[in-house]
Amino acid sequence: MIAAAVKIAPIALAFALMAPVAAHAAAPAAAAPAAATAAAPTVKVETLTAGEGAKPSAEDYVLVAYKGMLKDGTVFDQSDATPMAVADVVPGFAQGLVQMQRGGSYRLTIPAALGYGAEGSGPIPPNSDLVFEVQLIDWKTHAEFEQMMAAVQAQQQAGQQGAPAGQPAAQQPKQ
């Protein structure tokens, strides 16, 4: 529900997020013009439990546990550990993610314009403000993620090349 279109294999991302993480430097946010800031809808980010370290950028990949609710408390989605690209989620969720620190827990209040807007999505009615309780479990920079994906692909290719000639790399049991 959160990811608009997941472009990565969740298992590979979860694998990539399990490796130790070096210190990250967060990119500074560009300042918006004063007039645009006053009129634009904003995401409210409440810190429930403080995290530590740098914050992910819009180009990074995160592993989060979350519960998504309508303003009346109706739960529409939840997950214990979901990998996702920050760029692949609704704008309000992305704006909240880049304000979080590893290990922290947060409550995001997202106005409809930064959520699913006038269209809605599945159990989310049109023009609904959203509330998310989110724990940022871990995150990787885009470069770290690309390195991990290359390592996973190399490992998969090496496994396929190691199969005897004429034999498939992995045989599935017949049912």
Any chance you could write out the topology, listing elements then pairs?
Blueprint: H1 10-18, H2 34-39, E1 44-49, E2 61-70, E3 75-85, H3 91-97, E4 105-110, E5 130-140, H4 142-161
Antiparallel strand pairs: 1-4, 2-3, 2-5, 4-5
Protein described:
With 175 residues, the chain is of the alpha+beta class. The protein has a domain at 10-19 and 40-151: Chitinase A, domain 3. Helix content is 24%, strand content 25%. It has four helices and five strands. It has helices spanning 10-18, 34-39, 91-97, 142-161, and strands at residues 44-49, 61-70, 75-85, 105-110, 130-140. It has a five-stranded antiparallel beta sheet with strand order 1-4-5-2-3. Helix 1 crosses helix 4. The longest helix is centred in the last third of the chain and has 20 residues, at 142-161. It is globular, with a radius of gyration of 19 Å. Mean pLDDT is 81; it is low at 3-34.
Keywords:
175 residues; disordered N terminus; 4 helices; Chitinase A, domain 3; alpha+beta
> What is the terminal separation in angstroms?
32 Å
Q: What fraction of residues sit in β-strands?
A: 25-35%
Strand order of the largest sheet: 1-4-5-2-3
Q: Which sequence of SSEs, written as H and E, runs from N to C? A: HHEEEHEEH
Quickly name the level 1 CATH class of the domain at 10-19 and 40-151. Alpha Beta
Query: Helical stretch count?
Result: 4
Q: In one word, what is the shape?
A: globular
**pLDDT under 50 segments (min length 5)?**
3-34
**Mean pLDDT over all positions:** 81
What name does CATH use for the topology of the domain at 10-19 and 40-151? Answer: Chitinase A, domain 3
Rg from C-alpha positions? 19 Å
Category from helices, strands and their pairing? alpha+beta
Largest β-sheet summary: 5 strands, antiparallel
The CATH architecture assignment of the domain at 10-19 and 40-151 turns out to be Roll
DSSP helix fraction: 10-25%
Number of strands: 5
